[in-house]
Amino acid sequence: MWRLTILAVFASVYIYVVAGCAAPRAQVAGTAALPARQAFATLADNGQAHYVIRAGAVDAVTRHAADELADYLSRISNARFVVLEDGASDLPVIVVGGQGAVQHCTAGREAALGDDGFVICQWSGDLVIAGNTPRGTLFGVYWWLDRQLGVKWLAPDAVEVPVKRTLRVSTAGIRQKPRFAYREVLSAEGEDKAFRAHNLLNGESHGTSFRPSPSGIDMWDHSWLARGGDFDFWTLVPRSRYGATHPDWFGGGQLAMMSPDVRRVMAQEIVQRLQTPNAPKKIWFGIHDMDWGWDMDASSRAFVDAHGGAPSAAFLDMVGDVASRVRQSVPDARVAMPAYHWGFAPPEGMTVPDDVLVYPMTIQVDYSSALNEGRNASLGQGIRRWNEIARHVLVWDHIVNFGGYLQPTPNLYPIGRSIAWLATLPHVEGYFGEGDWQSRGGEFSSLRVWLIARQLWSPSEDVRALVREYCNAYYGAAGPAITRYIDRMHEAVRVTGDVLAEQTPIDAPMYTYGFVRQSDQDFDSAERAVADDPTKLARVRQARMPLDVVILALRARYAERAREGGWDMDIPVRKARLLAALAVEHTTKYRQSGDLSALRDLLDVAWHPSAAPAIVSALTTADWQEIGALKLNLYDSARVVTDTEAAHGGAVSLRGDSEAWAVQLKFDKLPRGGNWDLFAEVRVPDATLAPPAAAIRVGAYPPMTRRIDTPVRALPGSAYGWLPVPGGPFSYGTDHERGAYVHGVGFAKGQTLLIDRFVAIRHDAATAATSAMLNGTAP
């Protein structure tokens, strides 16, 4: 996921009362001249409209803005507001947009508004809502309806419209401009075009940019990573064309970035794409790396070492050179590059050319803190440094748990603090939040879109107050209980100190018995509060889904305490409620690439205790730790399933013919002290049917090449066996760029392999266990 647009001028959001509206140079055509600068204007009273509306321009977006204003004013006041087609009116007019309309409020200072800003003022008895562009005018109408009149667009299918018998508004002048020029949230809810527009999000990239928009809101910023404007290394230097003759260009998994020939070919490919008849215009053309690691060639390594050891140095140098070559044929060309994974840290002794936009990606974020706090300190330092060396920066933030769309993820308040901090960095011009774009109904998905949109426009708004405002509007009488639950989530992770990475497994320490029990009581209270309101009850049950998933998946962990405390978890009723809510929400994924059949498999496992594995039978409990299936990161085809051969009744299943690193262990699951050797327990159910070359690969990274392939025939038939993880000993760490993995090699299509668990054995105690395993005396 990637890409952006940057507007040339931007500033912090501000509202101010215009000391005096500019004296009109000419009256707006067709309006009645009435006394100006009233403190308040009565728009409607007792079902009678006192104003009419006029679209100041004929374009579809401005006309839509006028129609939307008329519709919502009518719904608020129960009066009929009309949009004048032509002619004069005996009533004062609300003028919506049009050429020169801004002048009536700002005395010719329209340049300060940018493309999205607007002014609202009283002029010669009329009201004016206008931006420099149709989009600015549309956003002015939506901002006024929301902030001044109380209309709330809370979800794609939820708008709250207040009812006011007398509709009065202040006529004090307003000028608004968003702090961030580019604003987008990529999620199933955030991709809803009307919901996005109503909440003043202007960016449209990736898949949603391929879909047509209604003409009235077809005003998106497509300048960053939109359709036809972004490609990876091996597309711009086609491996299929050059791999055989120039294999050295593609060594190490990326490109030989210092090669003049590589740069020449890439520039030629970009020029060809930009000069096609239907090529996108006025874009930052995206050049992005392959989505895996890089073992650098010698020339790239030498350049990197000369610039502080940051691999981004070679990437930036190549992009700057390519951009310069492209501009020889396309003079106004601009280029965008990510700062991602190995390329995140900025180089030393380099600056980014003004025609290059950098977008740091927060894949390594810990959601429990803001981007510049706690374990994210180095992440924040990297973003700050890019801001210092680049004129154009857009931050690609990750905002949901991709390992559990339906898990409690307390990052709402940290997101607010992150945006407030980013607003202090003058060259950060845009923000892109990547959410759960695969499926609707993720944990607080609409709230995230709404909250981020509000703060991208005005970063100084209090995030906790915004969450309360949303919950009270969306959940009604249940709002206080939902807010209490959200607060409880954030406190739980503060107490346990969990690492909340972009892939966090379901067996997280923060999901303690106390947390789930008290949170369940919060939701019981919420449901009682809205029991007579089917719409809000459905919303509460949708918000409850993540808690129900955790309780169902971890019910074995809570069972004894629940019995002692008299808590009936009522598993059948809870599961039925969850499945019904999933159906109502049309949810299709519970994690990235994990569909609802995989969720049902997970929830069906009847976990049970087990004795210590034989591999650690001679060790004290202080010298080993089990890391079960529910603590592993799952990708691609991996899913948790019932397995009666597994120690606790369940294991991770994955396709043997997929070489994706679909099962990974991150080292924050290790004990916090000491050094540890790791072993994985695996089996192949139909081992006798595996091809002779079939093997199980166990590896640890970095580097990407550290691995051991164990032939299936070396395993104990279809029973579980232990395989060592190379590269140890390992120690606890929160860097999710490091980990261990298991996958199959050379399996037949349709075959599976199962991973029961990992075991960590203290390094000074591991010799005996390893010897026993290698000598065949441990299973």
TrEMBL record:
The lineage of its organism: Bacteria, Pseudomonadati, Pseudomonadota, Betaproteobacteria, Burkholderiales. This is Alpha glucuronidase N-terminal domain-containing protein. GO terms for biological process: xylan catabolic process. Residues 61-143 form the Alpha glucuronidase N-terminal domain. PANTHER family: ALPHA GLUCURONIDASE N-TERMINAL DOMAIN-CONTAINING PROTEIN (PTHR47406:SF2), COAGULATION FACTOR 5/8 TYPE, C-TERMINAL (PTHR47406). GO terms for molecular function: alpha-glucuronidase activity. InterPro entries: DUF4838, Glyco_hydro_67_aGlcAse_N, Hex-like_dom2. The keyword Hydrolase applies. Keywords: Hydrolase. It comes from the Bacteria.
